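Take our chain:
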Amino acid sequence: MDKLLKGVRSVLYGFSVVAMSVMLVIIFAQVVTRYLFNYTPEWSEELARFLFVWVVFLGSALIMGESGHLAVQFLPDKFKGTVFGTVLDIIINVCGYVFIGLLLTQGWKMTSIMTFQRAPGLDIPMSWVYVIIPVSCVLMLLYLFRETLRIFRNISGRGTGQEG
């Protein structure tokens, strides 16, 4: 599983870098053409916005894989290695499953609803933009499952003491 997740991480990181670079070039070109030629391609702002949405959602999955999400760690750190700390880890993990599950189901609904609507500038189905929500949720679930395995390995005494 670790090999799979390392591969996923590489793909996410590569896509994020490329998408951010394309977004930067598009926005720069948009500013230049607006001020020098008094013209802005109708698709440029829309593509930059869609790339931003994709980078945010894929970046969320990437950060989750690195345990980098902003979190209040006071209680988990204070009770780490205790029974209460383990119970707290399980509760946090279950809350993660609930949140990602809700995001996944609602994201899928939104994606399927938006198949009829087209983006005015790019003339692509809006479902192509919204499909990143369920995709990123599946990736986040993979990382959350890895964390669940770590918790249960620690409970059963087979934990290595290493995080992630």
In short: The helical segments are 2-37, 44-65, 74-78, 83-113, 127-130, 132-156.
